[in-house]
Write a structure and sequence with these properties.
The chain is of the alpha+beta class. Helix content is about 45%, strand content about 15%. The longest helix is centred in the N-terminal third of the chain and has 52 residues.
């Protein structure tokens, strides 16, 4: 009878039980947090590549629809040009310019020559209106190459 009464009054967890639970949670967190960080990084890379492909397709479609006549705010001279708010709107991609998720120092840029050859780059703002330079720029679409290609390679 005395044992039954003692069990009714024992309403909490022992210190040892709490320490074991905390240790298990710490082990699980140690395993899951690095995987979660890796997943976030991978999703940023995938997002940038997908955005570059969208820009590539939009510029190619715009060139074909306009029969080589660039709309206001765009140029088909073969140099890199920043995808600004006006360009994004002309390409019917929304009213805001896309932003790079992997490295905020880079901007999306496009080039299209008079024959309709399109490419999309990630480059510093200082590289706008210049020809592609593999030592300063990263070409994302149609293929990934250039100085920081490792950032966007899966």
């Amino acid at each position: 009878m005395n044992k039954i009464r003692n069990r009714k009054n024992n309403k909490g967890f022992s210190l040892v039980e709490l320490i074991i639970v905390i240790a298990i949670m710490a082990i699980l967190a140690g395993i899951l947090i690095p995987q979660f960080v890796k997943y976030i990084s991978s999703s940023k890379v995938s997002g940038d590549i997908q955005q570059a492909e969208n820009i590539y397709n939009a510029v190619a479609a715009q060139y074909a629809d306009s029969q080589g006549t660039a709309p206001t705010g765009m140029s088909y001279d073969g140099n890199k040009h920043e995808v600004t708010d006006a360009v994004a709107e002309a390409l019917e991609m929304g009213k805001a310019a896309p932003t790079c998720k992997v490295d905020s120092n880079y901007l999306f840029m496009y080039s299209c020559d008079s024959k309709g050859a399109v490419a999309v780059y990630l480059a510093p703002a200082s590289e706008a209106d210049k020809a592609y330079d593999a030592t300063k720029d990263t070409k994302i679409s149609p293929s990934i190459e250039g100085v920081d290609k490792d950032k966007w390679t899966k």
